[in-house]
User: Fold these one by one.
Assistant:
Number 1:
Amino acid sequence: MNEEALSLVVGCDSTFQIWKCLEDHYLASTEEQEMQLKGQLAIKRGDGESLEEFIRKFKRTCDNLATIKKPLEDLDKVFQLSRVVGARYQPYNPVLSKTPYPTFNQYTAGLQHNERDLQNAEQENKDKIPVYAQAFIAHRGRGHQHGRV
């Protein structure tokens, strides 16, 4: 027993009293920690936070719940993550309307794949010069040629 636990049970006369004293002290702490961790799971992803970083933080919180013997079921993790990951990924969530439901690992892998697709599409859109801009550039180029002749 560590010093903290030992100091809690000084004066207890039976093993039942010792057990009850330790349970009362540590259970309250565990319940408080459980509520705090579950509250963290409800926090939505921030704008500047990468998806990978957010998933890692979410998983760490789930692992901490398991450490205090309050683990979430895999499906609960999936649905909880789907609620807080952000509107950007809502088009991916129809996968949750089909059974069998994905495991947490399958769901996060799918989200990350979806994120790569979104980033690629955004990059392609940035690389494309809009038609009106192309016409302006072409027209401007002809004007310079005519002015120099």
Number 2:
Amino acid sequence: MLMIIRPLILGLALIFSMAVPPASAQDAPQDRPEITVGYRVTPPFITRGEDGNYGGMAAELWKRIAEGLDVTPRYVEYDTVADLLAATEAREVDVAVGAISITEDRAERVDFTQPFFDSGLRVMIDNRTSSSLVNLWNGLAEAGYLRYYAWLLVFILIGTVGLTIFDRRFDKNFPQRWRDGVAESFYSVMLVVTKGTLPSRSRLFGWYGRFFSAFWLIIGIAVVAYVTSSVTSVMTSIAITGGINGPDDLPGTTVGVFRGSTAENLMRRQGIDFITYPGIEAAVDGLRGNDVDAIVADAPVLEYYKFRNPELGLDVVGRLFSPEKYGFALPYGQDTMIYPITVRLLALQEDGIVQQIAQDYFGDER
């Protein structure tokens, strides 16, 4: 009897083992639900290395959060934060990761997790022109002095030609070659303009020449006084205004902002002229090309770019203003992952992981 039952039990066990998959197969990654994670490259929060791999503070923090979730992420890149939030609102993205400021307007469109970073706006300027001859040139042009300088140049040329013709006729010692004569006359005219003096040829006509020389002395002194006073007044104006040293100096200027950013909304509310750019690289090109006078954007983004590109001569000036917080964005709805992601984020904050990741990118100031 036992000889018959034992083969029967072994056969049933074999059939059962084939019907039920092992525990490892049940937990295989292919059984995890796939979620779409949207992001926008914004160093130092989202960076792309030369090898094509992504990093940054927000990216590393998201990886820590995703480790505690039973999901398979699929990553999609967006050009601007406005595009990223629009995709999140349309439920094309399950989670938006990056330097995303939490605002009232955005909170009406998408849901946000617990904040993970405190930030604000600052101003970036091009230090190459903040105190250079470019400002002086622009000031002279705006005041209309360059137009008068142009007329002065015309008179210098006319005077050079006229003096050449005059001396060729009355001064037998004057160079007969036109090239040499024009050079000599130009030198004489510039002496009058810059020093108020006339060469010795003024003695050609006795006391008439002396009066003629005195007349040019007055003309030269007047020209020098006019140029000096105009340059001084413009330089004084530049010193008083001081260029752009912070957010209080932005009215009356044109600033660059990122398209769809909180800086764009703030500049629009304050009535400050602005030009939108898709990202920091394009905005810096506009700043260095004098299309805008400054860039207004998130402080850590500007500070990080300046630190990584010291050769560009950029500077981040003024105080932090319009303070804001960063968080991960999700679409509204009961089937989103807002609760598990927020709980996981809070756990990482309590364990000091968030602070540790921030210090890796910003030092002990965070």
Number 3:
Amino acid sequence: MTTTQLLPEAPTQALPPPPPAPATFADSPLARVLRQPFLLGLFLPIQDGGWSISTLPRSTDWHFDYNLALTREAEALGFDLVFGLAQWLGKNGHGGAMKYREQSLDSFIATAALASATERILLISTLHVLYGPWHPLHLAKFGATLDHISGGRWGINMVTGHIRSEAEMFGMQTPEHDLRYEMADEFVSVAKSLWRSDDNLTFDGRFWHLKEAFVSPRPRFGRPILVNATSSQAGMHYAARHSDIVFITSPGGAEIEAALATLPAHIAQLRAVAASEGRQIRTLINPTVVCRPTTSEAWAYHDAIVAHADQAAVDGFIGTFARSDAKAWRNHQREQRIVGGNLHLVGSPEEIVDYLLRLKAAGVDGVQLTFYDFREDLRAFGETVLPLMKQAGLRL
């Protein structure tokens, strides 16, 4: 079937205007967070193995209680937000002796469940909006409810799904790359209209239809926080229209110098697209931080992680993404996949802060951190790196 055959007719009428973005409300949780010079987030390990395909002993655990403790620790340290990954994997996950990521919590539910256990930190759930029977009315109602429970701290990282085997779990075929973003554009546009409309909404779209639909309660600050991850032109245009925060990847791979060389042009392009829509967006990138008191100790830790790689699981993980049409991650090398994260920051606390300063200078607005041993490494980050970030003007 060709792409043109897949495209339904244009919608019969326009949607009402979208609600204002939460950052436009001075007292919103998002506006408060955006006052920080450099955003600081934590990418929760709600999947077995976290982000590192290694068997080196560590505490990292996918269970909810472990992630709840991490979130509370991050909130106590002053972190701005936490994310959860969404995935659909079969038995044995990506394979290997560790059955990498076979066990995982659902991001939408697990991250939302943190709302009543926290007070300040933003909570971003990830959801494949094009899989299965999801409808914009579902998300609008669920999102309004979570906005109410969290006091406006909840947001959604809307992903279109690029892995063929995931779509096949739902009895679907993966739509072509740019078409997925057209579908997501209509999906979120409908949800935004439902969050704003004071009347019943009827809409006959290309992909979704509603008749006399209504959602309550009203989100407190216009709508929930909207996030997406992208490196493609279609994804950038979607982000420019809808997202408050964009999760970017390094075009140069995970090595920090290569990343710093390629990120400025990449971010400038994204910001130019947003400006063409009359909007300003913030960017986050995901480094894995490998930090020890000295440079040599940090690299010894890094090398031990790599030395304990589960090679069969690495093969399975790389093979999954090789069958994808996603535009990101293309320049990430095999060894870099073992450590995980979109780029690697390895060194002493002083070196880590220097890397963060250079990322900010390259145009990055913040980081969404991962660690090898989350509990221990997050605690050490708070004790040794965070005070230096404040001294350097990265944090208030």
Number 4:
Amino acid sequence: MPLLQQIEFLEKVIPSANKINLSVSDKRVDWHIDHSLKVIIYTSKALIASNPEDYKWKFNKWRFIIFIKGSFPRGKAKAPKRVTPKEIITTTEIQEQLAEAKELVINLKNLPKKSNFEHPIFGMLKRDKSITFIGMHTQHHINIINDILKV
């Protein structure tokens, strides 16, 4: 699913923000929406601010495995503080992040190919791998949201 469609999905499930299913996740739907948007925004801004000349490819076992698989395992990683939602998540904040995420994503393909983002586990990712990461990460949380809402 393209990034803009994923963002539209996150927007569509806002009315279910307070739902939780502890057999799926100990976080509510709004946490998954907010976290996904924070990752989209943070990664996009890092790509925009990066210096393409700094990009250096280096083999990374975890990047290789996860990107080949095309999905993340559940419950294996902890979100860094910079993309961890606050205790109280407001609809206003989500709406603001939705607008910012849409605007940023529209322009990602216009960045130089060697624009880059340093992921804490996968290492340095250039533009296209970063876009793939954003999509995989967002889809991971969309799948969790869908499982929460199945009840």
